[in-house]
Amino acid sequence: MAAIPVQSFRRPLAACCVALVCTLALFAMSTARAQDDTAPKVTISAAYTEELTRQATFIGRGEAHEKTDLIAQVTGSLVEIVVADGAQVNQGDLIFRIEPDTYEAEVAAQQAAVQRAEANVNLAHLELARKTELLQRDTISQSEVDFAEADSKVAEADLASAKAALQQAELNLARTEIKAPFEGRIGRTNVSPGALVGPSSGVLATIVRDSPMYVTFSLSEPQLLTVLSQLDVGIAELVASGKSPSVFVQLPDGTLVEEAGRLVFLDNRIDPTTGTIAVRAEFENERQLILDGGFVSVVIEALEPTLSVLIPQNAVQRDQRGDFVLVVTDQQLVEQRYVRLGPQEGTEVVVSDGLREGESIIVEGLQRVRPGVAVDAVLSGTAIGDAGGN
Questions:
Q1: Which pLDDT score is estimated for 67?
Q2: pLDDT on residue 1
Q3: Residue 21: its pLDDT value, please?
Q4: Which pLDDT value is given to residue 381?
Q5: 151-158 — which CB contacts under 8 Å span 24+ positions?
Q6: Residue 85 CB neighbour total at 10 angstroms
Q7: How far apart are the first and last CA of the chain?
Q8: Is 107 exposed, middle or buried (0-12, 13-18, 19+ CB in 10 A)?
Q9: Handedness of CA 327, 329, 333, 336 (dihedral sign)
Q10: Which domains does the chain possess?
């Protein structure tokens, strides 16, 4: 059998390869053309309205409703510390006791002085009565009666002075027992039993009433006007009884205290050194989560809810002109719309101006479109295969 040349096989094979390449190229071109003719698919969401209670948040500091430094008002040795550091005390509870012996002796001495003065008053009154009778009998002169009357008044003055000294002595004795002036919690004690204490020895301990509790914060004049505008209230209504907006506290760890407070004080002037006005809110603080001196966030709610337009936050873009969204018109065309945004509400954001309820905005596929192009819009939450190309 004659040998078949190898070259005769290579020519048909090369022709087949060229034909295959051309076929693939034509298929790719037709596919690309089909893709160009197909509108990009995007996911849309409708702007909707909801009644929202507007809020304004500021940084505040806890301020005790009542707070007092306990200081010894008499000098003496501290013989007893009755309550432990941090203990809860009631009004009138004994906290410290100073050695009373010296003051008890002073009270006894003043009591004796009062008795002596009372005896002198009685004697002076008897002498005055006797001399008045003798004057009526013309046995003594008027001057002797006048002297007796003066002695009587001196004795009465001495008695009043002795009673005042006794009262001071009793007061000093009472001050040897330092008691709680109101219900609250005692802080750390700064002295030990046996220490000599007195008015100049400093603070023995501090007692704080932490229920109710104030939270004080400051607003600049623009912030005050913004709050009044957002809450739609006047200055008088902001703190008026029964009209005050609800106030809440957010703790440093992010916990929002459920208990609502109320605004109880708004200063009558702007501080010229800081440009702010002082505001105070009051909370019952039943769980004692608000601490004196602690920083918290103060959240003020509007008196009435307002109807607001909301959209997902991921629909919002920004350029040099400001915030904008891409709206899909009834003709399935993309329109760039600049909007004015309000506060955030979870994953949504309030649109103050620029959108109406029911308008469709693109939330997915933003990078595949530009203003003026036609799109194949799919409602958010609907599978593309189930959308029917709408």
A1: 93
A2: 38
A3: 38
A4: 63
A5: 151/124, 151/127, 152/121, 152/124, 152/125, 152/127, 152/128, 154/124, 155/117, 155/120, 155/121, 155/123, 155/124, 155/125, 156/121, 156/124, 158/117, 158/120, 158/121
A6: 11
A7: 70
A8: buried
A9: negative
A10: 41-52+306-386 (2.40.420.20), 56-64+209-301 (2.40.30.170), 100-175 (1.10.287)
Answering whether pTM is above 0.85, one says: no
- In this predicted structure, what is the pLDDT of residue 242? 63
Beta-carbon contacts of 74 under 8 Å, excluding residues fewer than 6 positions away, are 98, 103, 172, 175, 176, 198, 199
In whole angstroms, what is the distance from residue 309 CA to residue 306 CA?
A: 10
DSSP 8-state class, residue 271: B
Q: Is the peptide bond before 40 cis (omega within 30 degrees of 0)?
A: no
Q: Which amino acid would we find at residue 128? A: L
Instruction: Look at residue 377 and give its three-state secondary structure.
Output: strand
**Contact (CB, 8 A) for 338 and 326:** no
105-126 pLDDT per residue, tens: 999 999 999 999 999 999 999 9
What's the one-letter identity of residue 93? D
The pLDDT value given to residue 347: 86
Q: What is the Cα–Cα distance from 340 to 322, expressed in whole angstroms?
A: 8
Q: Which residues of the chain have pLDDT under 70?
A: 1-37, 53, 230-231, 241-244, 302-304, 381-390
From CA 199, how far away is CA 338, in angstroms rounded? Answer: 69
- Which residues share a beta bridge with 62? 215
What is the chain's percent helix, strand, coil content, to nearest 5?
30, 35, 30
Q: Which of 182, 209, 244, 223 is nearest to 60 (CA)?
A: 223
Query: Which residue type occupies 214?
Result: Y
From residue 304, alpha-carbon distances to 33, 264, 307 in Å are 57, 19, 10
For residue 2, the model assigns a pLDDT of 41
**In this structure, what are the phi and psi dihedrals at residue 37, rounded to the nearest 5 degrees?**
-80, -10
Give the pLDDT score at 13: 39
pLDDT of residue 36: 46
Specify the pLDDT at position 136: 87
